[in-house]
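ingest -> validate -> predict -> emit
validate: passed (alphabet ok, no gaps, 89 aa)
predict: started
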Amino acid sequence: MGALYPYHQSLADKHHGFIVVDDSLKPPPERMTSSLSLMQTAEAAVLLFVGEAKRKAFEKFNDAVCPAAACPEKLVLAIKDATVFTDLS
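emit:
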């Protein structure tokens, strides 16, 4: 997944291609990422949750009641060939 953050306006961007984000929630604030529409055309996806810093994100990803707006990583599940890797248990 690119730099799509929970509840960020980039999730609603209708552009099909790459988008520039100037208010990323993590440094640096300026990033270029795939739009949601472009990501949804992928035939395969790999999602990584590596290290303790990603534990909270991994828990949200596995929480069935957590909406995709709060956990954009869940959008990967719509991709036909999606694989999730983690070192967390």
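The helical segments are 36-39, 55-62.
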